[in-house]
Automatic annotation (TrEMBL), chain A:
InterPro entries the UniProt entry points to: ATPase_NBD, HTH_MarR-typ, ROK, WH-like_DNA-bd_sf, WH_DNA-bd_sf
One Pfam family it belongs to: MarR_2
Originating organism: Kribbella kalugense
Organism superkingdom: Bacteria
Name of the protein described by the UniProt record: Putative NBD/HSP70 family sugar kinase
Keywords: Kinase, Transferase
UniProt lineage: Bacteria, Bacillati, Actinomycetota, Actinomycetes, Propionibacteriales
UniProtKB/TrEMBL annotation, chain B:
Matching SUPFAM superfamilies: P-loop containing nucleoside triphosphate hydrolases
Keywords of the record: ATP-binding, Nucleotide-binding
Protein name (database record): Monosaccharide ABC transporter ATP-binding protein (CUT2 family)
Superkingdom assignment: Bacteria
Pfam families: ABC_tran
Gene3D superfamilies: P-loop containing nucleotide triphosphate hydrolases (3.40.50.300)
CDD domains: ABC_Carb_Monos_I (cd03216)
InterPro entries membership: AAA+_ATPase, ABC_carbohydrate_import_ATPase, ABC_transporter-like_ATP-bd, P-loop_NTPase
GO MF annotation terms: ATP binding; ATP hydrolysis activity
SMART domains, A to Z: AAA (SM00382)
Domain ABC transporter: 16-256
Amino acid sequence: MNAIRPAPGSQASLREANRARVLGVVRQHGPLTQVEIAAASGLSAATVSNMVRELDQAGMVGLSRSIRNGRRAVLVSLASGGGLLAGVAFGERDVRVAIADEAGEILAHQLMPLQADHVADDGMERAARLLADLAETVSSGVENIAAIGFGLPMPVDAVSGEAGSDAVLPGWRGVNVTKAMAGHLRAPVALDNTANLAALGELRAGALRGVRNGCYLKFSYGVGAGIVINGDVFRGSAGTAGEIGHVTIDENGPICRCGNRGCLDTFVGSRALINSLAASHGPLRLKDIVTRALGGDVGCRRVIEDAGRRVGVAVAGVVNLLNPEIIVVGGLMSEAGELIMAPLREALDRCAIPSAAATVELRAAELGDEADIVGAIHRASVLSHTNISIS
Amino acid sequence: MTVTPAPLDVGAGTVLKLQGISKRFGAVQALKNIELDVRAGEVMALVGDNGAGKSTLVKTIAGVYTADDGTMVFDGREVRVGSPAEAQQLGIATVFQDLALCDNLDVVANLYLGRELTAPSARGRLLDEVEMERQSWELLRQLSAKIPSVRIPVASLSGGQRQTVAIARSLLGKPKVVMLDEPTAALGVAQTAEVLNLVERLRERGLAVILISHNMADVMAVADRVAVLRLGRNNGVFVVSETRTQDIIAAITGATDNAVSERAARRSREEGSAS
């Protein structure tokens, strides 16, 4: 990224912008003919023709013969020089997959809604088939996937590659993801928690860039944290570091899915929030609560504020322990913006020791819901370079 | 005609309510006393075995058939739908399984088929291609549709993209209810994902969506409630967040109320009391 760019406004910079535009269109839609590129990019046919010729000479796109509307046509597709990297990030209600080139540039991505409490093998099979489909749209094959970064929203054992036996999604309990996924796609798999992956993503390309000590707080269906220490994600001895959602808030509180009592998740997890609104608002989804709160619904606002305050108390503990420079808040709930950030900040200021609270900055995530997939791609990239073979 | 249907208040009351709908084809009682209510901003899945009456019910709502008996309340007033055109005018849009797209026409022409926009010119009124194309892009962008060009024939689009075009077309009339008949049948997994995302987006716009599907995984992923039809009758409405897939399948197949399951239940009760 340190190459000298042409002066802004010059012919050369226009040329570069047009090139990026052509590449962007092909990246977004998959293989296209030049006419289609012109239509989708808004560039003239002559410009597209020039750009494609240049890109072809530079080896950045591949040309193949095809037929469109009964006429011969040349399909332009992205050249996949080396192996592809794959990223998979499961949420409670969806799975997000992406394919990236060797440099980690995302070529294609797709989100698929899943049923709540889906079972692991069904989820993995869908993810594998989505990856195969995506690999084809970037005119490559599933066999070119060099490594997979795989994220689950639950504690995982990074050493054995198993989802924790106290997994929050019951369908995944004790499943050996590394083995199963490697069986589907014949590529090595790096398993991690999605909060850790999102922290990694923000560390490489988002709000945590250049931060030595920080924390990524993923506030979605549950709460998780990715901890950054000395410029790297800290995973603990078995990869379960940062499980802030299972910090005990009330020793006599309700039983959590993890088997303990009064975990933070039992107060601010999606079930708790949805249940607290069930009587007044009927069955809602987590996203509905956020949308309605933003739309001015007082009940939903109250629920979100209370959740923010509760999480703020737990985060104060993290601030006391780690003294981070910055805490980045991401995940579905963070889309509520100041509605959640303000009470969170207030509780944090109240509960953390003043010197630590004064130096910590609370900031919204930059990559949005893409953070974990960016992190997953990065894990895959590291894995493909170290070339650890699975045995 | 504007492209954007004004978003309704999400979760506002019932948009469509059926009461005691019955339909008979000669000796066959296809529907018997069907009750169904659909709310705005809700995805209601309609499931059932082959011959359960799903398609008949959809066609009755869409105005293809007229019900022999029963009432239909749309948007707070009782309506009689005599033809598909009437249903569309009311605000009930249907995307049938065959999509009814013209393969040889491009995306814009398909979207505006039969309701082309015109603009005055020196030679009388001509098609306003520019405006139609602009609005097509606008609509497809709102649906986050991955379509490379609106000027390519529909024949060269993938199954998921064709489904997207068909759904986009149904939205042009500013409907309040959209019915999708088997939208994910015969689609690959990436295209299925695209259509499911589209269903979620319709829901976010405050539309009531009636989704007919055989694929339980898809239904459980996007639906809020599931209405089960069995042999032309209601066989339960389930709230997805409180239901397991098995219960719905049991309702579809009738496993909940046959002699075998009753005997099994009786036996397990007896064993339970014996031990």
